[in-house]
Write a structure and sequence with these properties.
By secondary structure, the chain is α+β, with helices and mostly antiparallel strands. It is rod-shaped and about 145 Å long. It folds into three domains: 97 residues, no CATH class; 108 residues, 2-Layer Sandwich (Tetrahydropterin Synthase, Chain A); 60 residues. Strand 8 and strand 9 form a beta hairpin. Helix 1 runs antiparallel to helix 2. Strands 7, 8, 9 and 10 form a four-stranded antiparallel sheet that branches. The chain has a three-stranded antiparallel sheet with strand order 1-5-2, covered by helices on one side.
């Protein structure tokens, strides 16, 4: 791949007065020759003709040299070519003069934001979703940006959309499993993966990706309602599992403490009844109504 290198140029403010003085001198020389021809009665000698031809050629050269001036704004660069061959890149802002036959391709080095189109793709589980991302990028290698791809801005757009499509296909939209990454629940990890993939894709174009972030994420309209009900059901099931796990742990702790301190000695049947009652109280959706036992613990 073409590698960028710096090309030094001359200060335009130094070259401009030099060329102006040379142009005035050329014009003054032409006036002197014309006055000499008039003094000789309008007869031009060979020396006069040669002098006029030289001055005309010099004037053409000076006019050509004037085409070498160009300006650069901050955070812009000029890629210089001479008859199709890369001659280097100038990044310094200001008024410059270079070979007038250079072809100057100017491009911006500023950080840019790019928001991809909202894409409809299938996630890892095959569910249709809508997804879009913001990509923050800038040109780092001007030679690669100009020569390695046809249009680096269009290249960034197409590759960004391709990377977002690929990212959506390797992650589920959402998950309830511990440790599993998802598009909705693992924003930082997903953004890092998207940035890494985009940087690999855009390195050929001399582009550096500074940041990526999902800007839109939703189920496709045709399944949005069904997936919302599914999420609600999964949330209820997950909550129930946690409630049961906590209740079982509390019952085990209660029985262990009773046996440890010998507060009350229960046989297996009454332990089972106690466990059943505690689980009903702890796992019920509504508060249990207590029943006060005013009799003895054991029937006579």
């Amino acid at each position: 791949m073409t590698q960028e290198f710096e090309r030094k140029t001359l200060n335009g403010w130094l070259m401009l007065p030099a060329l102006i003085v040379a142009t005035l001198a050329d014009g003054y020389g032409g006036i002197r020759i014309i006055m000499a021809i008039e003094r000789s009665g309008g007869h031009a000698t060979a020396a006069h003709v040669v002098g006029l031809v030289a001055l005309i050629i010099g004037l053409c050269v000076l006019i050509t040299l004037m085409a070498g001036f160009f300006t650069l704004e901050p955070n812009r660069a000029a890629v210089l070519l001479l008859f199709g061959r890369y001659q280097g890149t100038t990044r310094e802002a200001g008024f410059h003069w270079a070979n007038p036959f250079y072809t100057k391709t100017k491009l911006s080095l500023r950080t840019r934001n790019f928001n991809t189109e909202t894409l409809k793709v299938n996630d890892h589980r095959g569910n249709p979703i809508e997804i879009a991302a913001v990509v923050v990028w800038r040109v780092e290698n001007t030679a690669q940006a100009v020569f390695e791809v046809d249009d680096y801005e269009d290249y960034v757009r197409v590759q960004s959309e391709s990377a977002v499509r690929h990212l959506a296909s390797i992650y589920p939209y959402d998950t309830n499993q511990d440790g599993e990454l998802s598009l909705r629940g693992s924003i930082d990890e997903v953004s890092r993966d998207l940035l890494s993939e985009l940087q690999t894709r855009l390195a050929k174009a001399g582009v550096v990706v500074e940041e990526t972030r999902l800007s839109h994420l939703a189920y496709a309209p045709e399944i949005a309602g069904a997936m919302l009900r599914r999420q609600q059901a999964e949330a209820v099931v997950a909550a129930r599992i946690r409630i049961v796990e906590g209740a079982v742990g509390m019952v085990e702790t209660a029985l262990e403490r009773l046996e440890q301190h010998k507060t009350i000695i229960l046989d297996d049947e009454r332990k089972a009844a106690m466990v059943s009652n505690l689980l009903v109280v702890l796992c019920g959706e509504q508060a249990a109504q207590p029943v006060v036992n005013t009799g003895t613990l054991y029937a006579g």
